[in-house]
Structures are given as C-alpha cells and as structure tokens.
Amino acid sequence: MTTPQRSRHQPEGIVSTLRIRETPRANLTQRYTALKTITSTMTIGNTIRATLTTLENAQIENARAEAEWIAANRLGTTRAGLHAAFNDAIDASICLDIDSDARRRASREPLQYILGDVEFCGCRIEVEPGVLIPRPETEWIIDFLQNTISSAPERALDIGTGSGAIAVALASHWDAANIVAIDLASAALRIARRNAKINAVTDRTTFLRGDLHTLPFLDENFDLIVSNPPYIRSADIPELDPEG
Questions:
Q1: CATH for 12-107?
Q2: Are 113 and 127 in contact (CB under 8 A)?
Q3: 190-205 confidence digits (pLDDT tens)
Q4: Cα 63–chain centre separation
C-alpha cells in the first residue's frame, strides 16, 4: 500500500496518524507505540484536523463541530478551550482514544453514544447503546407542561422512562414534585437512576420495573401522567437511518 507523501503544509503528526490508519491489522499496542514516537509533534490542532478528515471522508454532516466535540470530550474541555490550546502537545493515549471515537462516528454510531451524554432541558443525561437518545422534540413536552400547569403536581408518573430524561427534568424544574418512573428494561432503569443521581434528584424520583399494562403498584393516585413511548413501528426500524 502506498504511503501518502507529506506536503510542505501538512503537519508531520497528521501524516503519522494517517499511516497508522492505513494498517487496520495493527493491534492497539503497535498503534500506541507508533503514536508515542510522535508525541512531541502531535498537537491538539493536528489531532482535530486528522479527526475532521476521518469524519469528512465518511460524509458526516457538521464534521467540523463533531470533530471538536469528540476531541473536547476526551480532553475534558470545551470547544472554546480547544482553540485556546490549539498548539499544545497532546498525549499519545488521548490521540488513540480520539481516533477510536472518530472511527466509531464514521461508522454512523450516534455522536451522543460516543460522548456518553446529552443535554436535556438543562439536565445532563447519560446515554448508552440500548437506551434511546432523548430527542430535542421531547423537550417540548417539558415546555408544554411548565407553561400549562400553574402549580407543580405533588406526584407524577412517567411511563416508559428510558434514560429517565423526562422524570429527571420534571424533578429538576418542580422542587416540590415527586416523580415515579417505570420501564420494562432493567438497563434503562439502571441508567435512569444514575441520571437522577447526576442531577441531584434521587430524593424525589423513584424508578420501578413495569409498563402501562403491568403497573408495579395496585392503587396509587397521580396528579400528572406523562409518557413519550417509541412511536415507530417495529417493522419500519430496519429501514431507518442508522443514526435514528
């Protein structure tokens, strides 16, 4: 396989990264060793450019912004922070992590799963494969309830809570409300409880296993019942865009 030639304007770090990418059979140790040898020439800026190339080659929309989000996530900073440190050296292991994340995104894995969380109504909601990503449209439910209900409900029920986004958002916005949230998936309940802890609402949220047909309580009254279940037919799922 022909190795790309470096132009006068192409940073050495990017060329070295491209060479590693051309050997997909190289194991992680080999790739890490190769990256380690160029640590002194790899900068945050070079890494972002290499990530951008990977995403552009995969025809990812908003590739520039996503390349920066991926890098910022691994570096524990913001996009603004990246630009402030554009010429700073970057550790080889972080380069490897960013490269791995870029490859995942190039394969059309949703960015939110790669970053690990999403903002929802001012709350940080962690997500992972197996749990639906809260969509921006779902925030309309919270906005509608806040603008429609004059006083906070004492008890509310969220059916099919998934990541717990709605339950956590309601508890965050209504200090006096107690939210009961149910879902059939144990993995979803685990993540929902974690999101309640992240957003400091564990004292006012309860997560139980159940669904609309098998409510996990016999006789309880709620002032508000909310649900945003999946609205796509199972038969249509294989035809959907892989990013949902």
A1: 1.10.8
A2: yes
A3: 999 999 999 999 999 9
A4: 16
